[in-house]
Amino acid sequence: QAEVWRDAVCRWFEKATGLLNLASYPWNKFVRTQAESMTLQGYTVTPVTPAEDASDGQAVSCPVQQCTATFDYNGAAGAFDMHVEYFDQSTGIAHYSVFLNDKMIDAWAADLRLLPGRTDARLDSTTSTRHTIAAVLLKPGDHIRIEGSPDGRETAALDYVEFVPAK
Predict the structure, then answer these.
(1) Cβ atoms of residues 121 and 153 within 8 Å
(2) Cis peptide before 63 (omega within 30 of 0)
(3) What is the sign, positive or negative, of the torsion defined by CA atoms of 14, 19, 23, 25?
(4) N or C: less crowded end of the chain, CB within 10 Å?
(5) What is the pLDDT of residues 118-150, one digit of tens each?
(6) Rounded distance between C-alpha atoms, residue 59 and residue 165, angstroms
């Protein structure tokens, strides 16, 4: 959560003052694919308010039974920790599955309950969280697919996928 808040505060400060150049910050050197730029089936692009609570002020959410977001990896070959930034809205238990070249590499339930008792389904920094898949072996052109299944008012929303060199 510290990284989520760091990014939100820096985006707000840059927007409010024009004094920062976030592109020069070390965490912006990782390969990142915004969810709204992926090939989407079922997912719809949704504005996030305030805009600095999502990496580009937008996320994708799933208003149907199951949605997919796909893209091809375009970074260097190697082992990377795959960070899936998503929203755990605490108004249901959405499910996510991640596939690499059509082979499932991970699945999880969005059941963290970041704000117990919450009854709204906002997409913002209070519900933004990260799931990490460690040491994924990647090469340019690998195909990545994320499947999201909403539950209740939880929309299996996604913000971005980021690849950080594995330690």
Answers:
(1) yes
(2) no
(3) negative
(4) C
(5) 777 889 888 889 999 999 999 999 999 999 999
(6) 24
